[in-house]
Amino acid sequence: MRLPRRGRFASRLLPVSVLLLLPSLAAADGGTIRLSEQQGGYRITVFTAPTVLRAGPVDISVLVQDAATEEAASGVQVTVKVMRQGSPDVVFQHPATTEAATNKLYYAAVFDLPEAGWYSVEVSIHGVLEKAQVRFEMEVAEPVPPWLTMAPLVGWPVVAVLLFGIHQVLVRRRMRPAQ
User: Fold this and answer.
1) CB contact at 8 A, 32 and 45
2) In the CATH hierarchy, which fold is given to the domain comprising 28-140?
């Protein structure tokens, strides 16, 4: 059975529109680029995830490339330090490793940021070329309310029931005899 032309278009448009509206479902590596600059012999690019940074777990991934060849640098040690601005006692420091990264070209570290506000991030690279260090600032929003994290789990049956109801209304309209 072949779908009508409109049905084929809709069946192709739905998955694409879902990925466009909810890009986190695409499971792409990296996140949002926060910084990309050349320091010494390295090109350092820093990514953060989730896209909207919120208090709680934050992934900071670093791509270190040889500036001359633009190939991923190997044998480097990457350290990420996160400091809460205005609170010198709130400092987190972790080594970024390829084991913690989804994409093994990156070095990643996960931080559990306790509160919203501005944070300074310092990334240090120690490798065969030389030492390099970059800094940037990022704003972290309030954490997501717990009820909002549960909404997709509770809400999807409602969507299914609504779609079934719309389908039934359309079928009954088509089956109604013309007067």
Assistant:
1) no
2) Immunoglobulin-like (2.60.40)
